[in-house]
Amino acid sequence: MTRALLIIDLQNDYFPGGAYPLAGTEVAAANAALLLASARARGSLVVHVRHESGEPDAPFFRPGTDGAAIHQAVAPRAGEAVVVKSGINAFLGTDLKAVLDEAGVTELTIAGAMSHMCVDAAVRAASDFGYAVTVVQDATATRDLDFDGRTVAAADVQAAFMSALAFGYASVISTTEALAAPAAA
What we know:
The protein contains five helices and eight strands.
């Protein structure tokens, strides 16, 4: 089985000082950087996903802005695949599946942002396509959400989405567990 590392939307706008900062993005990126170093050392396929908004007045990820650039902590190297998407699901309207299938990928390790949107959508789609998916929960980030007149804390959003993914779509583990696995990304 061939494993790939998929890093989703760890872009400057999600970091402190960016247009749409998330809770814990710096920790998530540091952990994703550890996964990235491990994947590179093993010669595993690495795929970076970068979101560009299709709307000129978008609040974040506007094409051509520094905010839409992949953060330096997990910046792609020459030759690493970069899939650009304009929607939530990294598989929808992109060549992501073709990139993975061409490399013979059967297992995906996923890190990135936002846990409750793009990570969730990619994990569910990948599982539906038949990939064995591992989500590295402390290499993902989200934010507080508002629902029904109340604020749901980012930690609760994270726990809800990670527990839902672990229930039926993915193995959800920590960075330490991922790096200790014999076939780590």
